[in-house]
């Protein structure tokens, strides 16, 4: 292979190891034993003219690579450890490949080199990054990806100096190994770009060259070339003086570092100097001043701190009364006055403060390190003065001491940080740290021709890409107001749905501290307003809708751009995602209108049943179940299915206002709401600011199954004849593109994927489908809604990639902590069950059947094992099943089935018709697989109390939440009703009693038996029955209903209802409220109140009396359905564990699943849980297990495995704790018995730990206390 390279047409790379001595194969035949892969030729080049390039790794004992390998000439590199006595590994490579030897990773058995490629994103490894820029956040710095690589980092600095608004700053490293200095192509392009754009340039270079221009005594060859390049590019040298910038032991002082600038910028630089402030580095720090001003940091309010009491007291003082009739000018004035009032009060209670970016102090820095650093600095200066061997050695010793102390301090600080991860929030932060990826911030973009744009050009390109049709705001003429604005009364029936109650609920439905819009007022400010202020805001909302006008301030928005992860080029606009921040006050009004449309328009004109995005009760799971069901049906009928997965390019960016308005009219949205929304859509404006650049824009007016989720759509068709399916699918694609053209939307051809679903060994694909004149090739895999689909729906690719990604996260997490230090075991388990495992199990409803395959089950089991091994220090042979039982961690295949079963019940109503078979021999589809699993574990299907969320705003009764403050009954009203619910001995009951408010005479009392209802359902049922009784009561009375359940009272006050029992109760109370005045208050339970005690007694009677069973027993709530499935799965797991033939020693302690003991184990520290796990599983460092590991024969095994204490039996953990006669006194002290039975029944984790600590085996399990060890002890 090596000798005859001309037989290959393309450059190739060959890598691998082969033993030449044992194989006896000639070198020219090595190709038969090595893996080969080819390099694609550069674009526009002929493959036949390219010289072959290769890398060859060989392995040969006790021979020199020079003597055995033939066919190599001067065009090849040879890498091996020349100092090693025996070389058994070497690396050969073409010199045309940029290979760098790595001595740190090279010895006689290993040869390593770094290959610098030209592939984008893989040019260099992290070890080859030799240039970087660090800048204060207050400086408006723009990264420039086009002029950045491993040896050069460039940013554009936006300043406030007139005429010098843009300054390019670059940190450059010139390779010292190059014999002839040549400026990198990126650097040349940067200089030319600055010359062409008349921009200023500042270069901070490690030039590795010498010249008198920057302080060297004389110029070398590299320095002379450098001088020519500086002259050619018209740059000025900033270096002054002759103080060396580089010093080491062998070099008294040289000047390899150069600072260059354009002539105009060089006039602003002063006080250039070399500082001795950097200690421990050969290079000295260079400092200089530059007369430029940067943008001022913005001012912000801190809403987490402030005087909210003062805010609430001052906000009530409004300057004037509200108008009776409203017009557009009055609306603008009122909206502005409302915002101004809030801002004025906030200026007092939450003043604006300039944001300061300070460098946080290192937690690991200490006084000891500061002293060592001071000593090292002093000795370094002494060495620079004396230049003697003695001073150098003293400096080196001080530097070693400082570095060692620094490493120890950092390790200690990191250990403290990981051990402090005692709650999920901190563990999530730790996982985020270990998963750290490069931060891709917004920098200068380039256009389609590759030209780097200015900051203003970059911001405009982003606006044009993500907001097509918007125009610069200064170029838009303001709307001409009509000659006379009409006056309208806000008490109009059309806006009667805008009530203070709905506005209050809308205000409190938002996260209080979410990022605000241009006015800088978050939702928390509105949540602190009283009823009077919210009533005023309600009237403003009414006026806005009835006038069909949105105040100008509400139409403004701020736009920020965040990078999309995993993009190859962050110099294009599509690599960033826009986030629009609008004023929260407009979001409140939108929420109120949306709630109204849900109960009115969308109840009669709903969205299409196959649109699953942004809809209550629907999710990606239901969309995937629908899609998979169609494909499974085709497989069951031995047919084909074709799927085309579409993506609308910039779907939300390119949606035209006129098309949106037409859609609203098609759904019969009232005309006045369409007009209101039209005014907003056609008069919006946006502002985007970044790095000192701000732009402002204003928006111009401007049979195939289709399954959609937001802007991701899938077209699926099934049938027996491929050519017919392809023809119909093409017509469906044409119809979709035609619809897109009418809506001004374009389907992305690059993201459109077609797949033929089949179960054939060698399928015959029809001709490619076409979209927008471009052929869509048939794909062997497609990612849709987070799942990777393959033609046979085997889910092999999906499971493999998910588990690989999860393993990567777990390995990073394990590497960040120690075996006996780090996050507590309970939090380490949560890191897996709360972060990693949900990522793996996502969408398992459609692929849960795949876990029964051998490969999938093995991969998932290994993942579970890897996660559990991070809980402490365990032996490698520790059984996975034992670890799962001890930590109460479901086997991952079983957890996948459980999650799929729960998802099956949750999506049952949305996907009830997708019971398709997966394949003939299974005769089950994915939903039937989950249903079958539920049957196998003994789940009894029953009707759930959960319903799709409905809005119930009509309240004929009053819920007094203020009663929570006292909890005492009030002596008001004509009649007092007391309700209660109870659950005793696995049975439930409810009851109510009515008392005369004055005489306290009992008028009526009833109690009911409710079988297995929850306590909350019993409380609600009692209120419902009391309301039914009230509705039948003649006359009109003032009623006060008392309940001791705050959760039930809150649910009655909440307009969003998702329980059929709660909905029926509200309807019953409304009926009672039409005849009487009904108020609901909270009363404290078991506080001696007569009515509450009577109601509690009645509820208990109902629970104990099955003869009082009623017909309106509440259905099972969803949380009980879910917990019931989980309990049955736990029983199924327990049964499987008892039937398992392995894990004998673990079963001696855990004969069955024990939640309490598992919880106690997880509450231990890492050292303690390690000891307990080693003891319980038997995989420890005792003699019997050590003999098994050593694989002794029978005689040696019996001799070595003998107990060192009693010499009577094998030394196992169970023998030591339960049977060893030598430890009877300790066993009696800890377990109150001489011997323990098998399996051990009455034991606790605390008792076991105490035994381990005070027994002689403590050292064997790492629990011995220092100073208490007996050196003469067998252990």
TrEMBL record:
Entry's Gene Ontology molecular function annotations: nucleic acid binding; RNA-DNA hybrid ribonuclease activity
GO terms under biological process: DNA metabolic process
Superkingdom as given in the UniProt entry: Eukaryota
InterPro entries, sorted: DNA/RNA_pol_sf, Endo/exonu/phosph_ase_sf, Endo/exonuclease/phosphatase, RNaseH-like_sf, RNaseH_domain, RNaseH_sf, RT_dom
Entry protein name: Retrovirus-related Pol poly from type-1 retrotransposable element R1
Organism: Paramuricea clavata (Red gorgonian)
